């Protein structure tokens, strides 16, 4: 009985290990991870290496093109914006902010959503009904509408943006966690743990929760990209992190006014954002395919 009751965590860890090993064996995963890691390192190193300012206004250096074009000059490798600020540095800081908001948001919504979903599925009855109706109501509210309502009434910052994203997106994790819990709570190792006197909290935390990770890991990776998109949208429409802090949305929004004469103001941050999103989506897609192969017994 004891061996059966304690088998959940090693079994789930083995599944997660096979999923990660199968994903890493593909060239697509390695390339995507390298791009993501390289961008992450650049966002940290750039402020210490680039000899320019991301916030200092220099009117004499307005609209300088990238260094490979006529009129470009060092240290402005990818040109300057309408206020003479280094565009590469601003874009990399914007990418760093987007990464931070995306990752922190997903971690928080993962924890909250999974906790609610596990508790709802395990307890069942009226508790399950109430929590799932709350989840349904929350899922029915579009993210942008919620953001306009909350962020439009205050001065937005990183904390309020993260709060909005978490509030809007935790129900998806709750749904997945609940469906896995409903299946897991009927299995022998859960019944064995109950017979041995394990508390409900211990069963949920140590036996059921690890079983959820393989089913939801790729969703979390894809959600980081989704949160980055929303962060850029908020900045673009003016309800995201406010200037002078650089964000993709504010940089691209300002650059659209000068698209014909200074296209690099929009293209540079847009390209970096697209590269980051592509790497995350590739990793999420490979993890999903690897998970499906593991569940089908092919890995």
Automatic annotation (TrEMBL):
Family, similarity comment: Belongs to the binding-protein-dependent transport system permease family.
Keyword Protease attached: no
Primary location class: membrane
Protein name: ABC transporter permease subunit
Compartments in which it is found: Cell membrane
Superkingdom field: Bacteria
UniProt-listed PANTHER family: D,D-DIPEPTIDE TRANSPORT SYSTEM PERMEASE PROTEIN DDPC-RELATED, OLIGOPEPTIDE TRANSPORT SYSTEM PERMEASE PROTEIN APPC
Pfam families: BPD_transp_1 (PF00528)
Topology in the lipid bilayer: Multi-pass membrane protein
Alphabetically ordered keywords of this record: Cell membrane, Membrane, Peptide transport, Protein transport, Transmembrane, Transmembrane helix, Transport
Location of the ABC transmembrane type-1 domain: 95-284
SUPFAM superfamilies xref list: MetI-like
InterPro entries cross-referenced by the UniProt entry: BP-dependent_transpt_permease, MetI-like, MetI-like_sf
Source organism: Pannonibacter tanglangensis
TM stretches of this protein: 31-50, 98-122, 134-152, 158-177, 212-241, 261-283
């Amino acid at each position: 009985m004891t061996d059966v009751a304690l088998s959940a965590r090693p079994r789930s860890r083995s599944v997660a290990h096979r999923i990660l090993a199968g994903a890493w064996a593909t060239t697509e995963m390695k390339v995507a991870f390298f791009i993501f890691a390289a961008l992450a390192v650049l966002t940290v190193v750039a402020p210490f290496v680039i000899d320019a300012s991301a916030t200092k206004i220099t009117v004499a250096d307005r609209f300088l093109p990238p260094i490979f074009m006529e009129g470009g000059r060092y240290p402005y490798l990818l040109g300057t914006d309408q206020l003479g600020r280094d565009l590469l540095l601003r874009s990399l800081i914007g990418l760093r902010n987007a990464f931070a908001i995306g990752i922190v948001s997903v971690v928080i919504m993962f924890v909250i959503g999974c906790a609610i979903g596990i508790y709802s599925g395990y307890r069942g009855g009226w508790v399950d009904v109430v929590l799932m109706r709350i989840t349904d109501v929350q899922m029915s509210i579009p993210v942008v509408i919620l953001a306009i309502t909350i962020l439009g009434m205050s001065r937005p910052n990183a904390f309020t943006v993260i709060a909005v994203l978490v509030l809007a997106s935790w129900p998806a994790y709750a749904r997945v966690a609940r469906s896995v819990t409903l299946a897991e709570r009927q299995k022998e190792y859960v019944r064995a743990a109950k017979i041995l006197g394990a508390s409900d909290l211990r069963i949920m935390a140590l036996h059921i929760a690890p079983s959820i990770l393989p089913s939801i890991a790729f969703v979390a990776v894809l959600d980081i990209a989704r949160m980055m998109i929303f962060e850029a949208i908020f900045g673009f429409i003016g309800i995201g992190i406010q200037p002078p802090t650089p964000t993709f949305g504010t940089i691209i929004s300002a650059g659209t006014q000068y698209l014909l004469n200074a296209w690099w103001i929009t293209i540079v941050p847009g390209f970096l954002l697209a590269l980051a999103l592509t790497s995350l989506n590739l990793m999420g897609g490979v993890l999903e395919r690897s998970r499906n192969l593991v569940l089908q017994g092919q890995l």
